[in-house]
Amino acid sequence: MFNPLSRMVTKNGLRRTLLHVAIIAVAFGPTKAALAATGDAGGSTRIDLTLLVRIGVAVVLAFSIGWEREFRGSEAGNFTFMLVSMGAAAFTAVGVENFPATAENIIAGVATGVGFLGGGMILKKDGGNVRGLTTAAAIWAASAVGMLAGIGELLIAGLVTLLVVLILELQFLPVIGRLNARRSRPKDAKPEANEHEF
Fold first, then answer.
1. Whose CA, among 63, 69, 82, 157, lies 20 to 30 Å from 184?
2. Does residue 41 belong to any structural domain of this protein?
3. What domain count does the chain have?
4. Which phi and psi angles does 15 have, rounded to 5°?
5. pTM (whole model) above 0.70
6. Based on the domain organization, do 25 and 97 belong to the same domain?
7. Which residues cross the membrane (predicted)?
């Protein structure tokens, strides 16, 4: 006797099983040769876990820079920094892996594009004070972290991230904060409305 319900259950069970197998296969064992497909540019388009790891490391490292900026009251926070670093890592990783002959052009394009993005962070107030310059420079540095992670230099990317956060926090350290050039200006100079630039 034919039972359509049992056929549907078997069909759904088969779909779930195939879905689980596909997820496990993608997560634990793809090789470049097994997943390679010919692309339009004559190269190969690959689902490569190494690239995903590099991009993930770039996002995690940029989070710390973005958190510091958000903590200090900047308009650009951790999501902005993570997205910039992720984009830089993705463009760089794909360029280095799939187009090694022209990878330097891709890297130069990323640096230029992020420069325009950072330019949008710089604001000039009515009193002539410029705000956002430090955050724009931090966005540019976060893209450099993303590029380093994208080419596979994960240790250097981590060290550069620590250096960026240290530089951003220098003025808030007690000993070094006293040496700040803004605080040692001549007495006849007008103090700015905002002592710390974000």
1. 69
2. no
3. 2
4. -65, -45
5. no
6. no
7. 49-67, 79-99, 105-123, 130-149, 155-177
Question: In angstroms, what CA-CA distances link 133 with 31, 32, 125, 138, 149?
Answer: 44, 43, 13, 9, 25
- Measured CA to CA, the distance from residue 58 to residue 133 in angstroms comes to 23
Asked if residue 130 and residue 71 are part of one domain, the reply reads yes
Rounded Cα distance, 110 and 137, in Å = 15
Q: How far apart are CA 108 and CA 47, in angstroms?
A: 25
Judgement on whether residues 165 and 96 belong to the same structural domain of the protein: yes
pLDDT digits (tens, 9 = 90+) for 113-172: 888 887 777 776 656 677 788 888 999 999 999 999 999 999 999 999 999 999 988 878
Extract the tokens encoding 87. 């984009």
CB-CB contact of 69 with 77 (8 Å): yes
Helix (H, G, I), strand (E, B), or coil: what is residue 73? coil
The pair of three-digit structure tokens given for residue 103, joined into one six-digit string:
């990878």
Please give the residue range of the domain that contains residue 66.
46-178
Structure tokens at 179: 């040496």
150 contacts 54 by C-beta, under 8 angstroms: yes
